[in-house]
Design goal:
26% helix, alpha/beta, 368 residues, 8-stranded mixed β-sheet, 4-stranded mixed β-sheet
């Protein structure tokens, strides 16, 4: 069975940006029998948990810990929508697992499309300090019952590939429990689930599934949860060629979420197949969004160089979706590749400044 055939995007959320208020209204209207408010954010916006399933295997998951990473919220909404067309699949899955899914853990950051919360704290680095309200709710939830697995759902930048050519559309990680990166039983449980997901997805998007670095981060959520004994799997949604709106990523994120839950329901803490995990290629940092090659600057002496550009995602209040603003990241002999490469040989560089300014919005044009 290929779950991609059941995939249906929730039409109520067509854009990359999800308005918290729109999400809250949707949950209250469509999923009121499944949701519970578990707390409020720094700016007093509600944080909702959805609970579904009657199985004995308990799973905790959360989305938008970083406000500018909406794919996991989309994926959960799309999974529920897709399962409406697959009643038997839904019944089988949720008869084996009980899922608690925290929607939009960081609604303040989600509203502004920022990584941090409203008090400028990275929730994923606040595990020990507990300076944020939001991380306390997550930790309290994790302590409220014996969870067999956790899914820590994120997104990654467009800079990553699996092999220097193909984008890392989805990457996964069984986090380390210590600086030595010991392969523990809990890590093997995570690796087994990831291996099952990888086996399915590599047929759908070959060469686009990666493995995130397993360096131990002593303040991060996933590393500390697995260190405390709860197997925790990291998801990272990434780039798909010509898809900055991440609609294709969103689809495969949803498919991956289903296969992860299915593997959890079947493995039930077994580690069968974990040996496949190291076969997944580790993420490489190889790309920029755009590279202008062989740019001849308007200088007194001949100066020909490359200019690397990366989009920054900006949300402006009142708009339906985010905007992509190009910023200069590097100028000179750029070794990385670009998802778009433009050969500027014989073309004119038009700018008020002689040199491109690093870490500044693009202020030049290239004309024939």
């Amino acid at each position: 069975m290929n779950f991609e055939h059941f995939y249906t995007a929730d039409p109520d959320f067509p854009n990359r940006y999800i308005s918290p208020k729109k999400l809250f209204s949707y949950l209250q209207t469509n999923l009121k029998d499944y949701i519970q408010e578990i707390g409020t954010s720094y700016l007093d916006q509600p944080i909702y948990k959805l609970s579904i399933g009657t199985g004995i295997i308990n799973v905790l998951a959360w989305s938008q810990m970083h406000g500018n990473e909406s794919n996991a919220t989309h994926a959960m909404l799309d999974l529920l929508k897709s399962l409406e067309n697959a009643h038997d699949v839904k019944e089988d899955l949720f008869s084996k697992i009980s899922l608690d899914f925290i929607f939009m853990l960081n609604p303040d950051g989600s509203e502004k499309w920022t990584r941090l919360n409203a008090s400028e704290i990275d929730l994923n680095r606040d595990f020990h300090n507990e300076a944020s309200k939001e991380i306390k709710f997550l930790k309290n939830m994790a302590a409220s019952k014996k969870y067999d697995y956790a899914l820590n759902l994120h997104e990654q930048r467009t800079i990553f590939t699996t092999d220097g050519i193909h984008p890392a559309t989805l990457s996964f990680l069984a986090p380390s429990e210590n600086v030595e990166r010991t392969i523990t039983e809990n890590r093997k449980k995570c690796m087994a689930v990831i291996a099952h997901v990888y086996t399915h997805l590599k047929e759908l998007i070959p060469n686009q599934i990666g493995r995130y670095s397993d360096e131990f981060y002593p303040t991060s959520t996933g590393d500390n949860f697995i260190k405390s004994g709860m197997p925790t799997i990291l998801f990272e949604g990434g780039h798909f060629i010509d898809d900055y709106s991440r609609k294709e990523t969103r689809k495969y994120y949803t498919v991956a979420l289903y296969y992860a839950l299915k593997a959890i329901s079947e493995l039930n803490s077994d580690t069968k197949g974990w040996e496949i995990y190291p076969e997944i290629p580790e993420n490489l940092e190889t790309h920029y969004d755009i590279i202008y090659r062989n740019v001849k600057l308007n200088t007194e002496h001949e100066c020909i160089l490359d200019i690397a550009v990366q989009y920054r995602e900006i949300y402006e209040e009142g708009k339906d979706d985010i905007s992509f603003i190009p910023f200069v990241m590097e100028a000179g002999e750029v070794k990385r590749k670009g998802w778009l490469e433009i050969d500027c040989t014989g073309k004119r560089y038009i700018s008020e400044s002689k040199y491109p300014k690093l870490d500044a919005e693009v202020n030049f044009k290239i004309e024939d």
